[in-house]
Amino acid sequence: MPVRTALLPVPLAPEISLHLAGDRTGLFDATGGEFRSDVPPPFWAFVWAGGQALARYVLDHPGTVAGRHVLDVAAGSGVAAIAAARAGAARVDALDLDPAATEATARNAAANGVTVHARTADISDAGPAEVILAGDVFYTRSVADRMTAALRRAAASGSVILVGDPGRGYFPERLFVRRAEYTVPVPVSLEETESLVTGVWEMRTTITLS
After folding, report:
1. How far apart are CA 71 and CA 120, in angstroms?
2. CA angle, corner 201, sides to 7 and 143, nearest 5?
3. How confident is the prediction for the chain on average, in pLDDT?
4. Among 41, 45, 64, 69, which Cα is nearest to 54's?
5. Which CATH superfamily is domain 6-203 in?
6. Which residues of the chain have pLDDT under 70?
């Protein structure tokens, strides 16, 4: 069953509109409420708290990305990438392992009149960027460990790393400095609450790889 979406404004960043599932739609509704390992959940059909916070921060602080090469990893709907493009980034790339997310990012970028170079790839294949954005990427131990290692390597190479995280259990807070905090509206069907306090964090520059 395909996920039904409509072009809707992002709650925390209404300057951006995305093709999203409705507030009453759950992550696994398209599979009858069951997890299926052969089909990735449609993360791209929702705008998660971490991505919303990153988008708001970038729009409010355009100097963070203006004139720079920006990479949005695990881009999902592409909300952070689109915000970077609107804020004047010289080039915006967006990566996601799910081909459906790549398509969603491209569709959403077009709906907002900006250019985002979206492709299906892992962060390990990303290549260098001046600024790397990552929203809500610490939701399981395995994903968090891989993402943390990749982001630490990028930071050690000189990239500015900005992460949006609403207190997921595997966020390595000791590696980051909080730059902003927002109360982000979220669908109750996803989070079992109407809002999440979400931080925007910058990875520390003095990191020893191990």
Report:
1. 13
2. 75
3. 91
4. 64
5. Vaccinia Virus protein VP39 (3.40.50.150)
6. 1-2, 23-26, 28-39, 206-210
Predicted confidence (pLDDT) per residue in 144-178, tens digit: 999 999 999 999 999 999 999 999 999 999 999 99
**How many helices and strands (H and E) does the chain possess?**
5, 9
**β pairing state of 176-185 and 195-203:** antiparallel
93-112 residue pLDDT tens: 999 999 999 999 999 999 99
Tokens of 115: 């250019």
Task: Please give the angle made by the CA atoms of 7, 120 and 201, to the nearest 5 degrees.
Answer: 75
* Annotated domain spans of the chain: 6-203
Q: What is the DSSP string of 58-119?
A: HHH-GGGTTTSEEEEES-TT-HHHHHHHHTT-SEEEEEES-HHHHHHHHHHHHHTT---EEE
Q: Which residues contact 130 (CB under 8 A, 6 or more apart)?
A: 68, 69, 70, 158, 159, 160
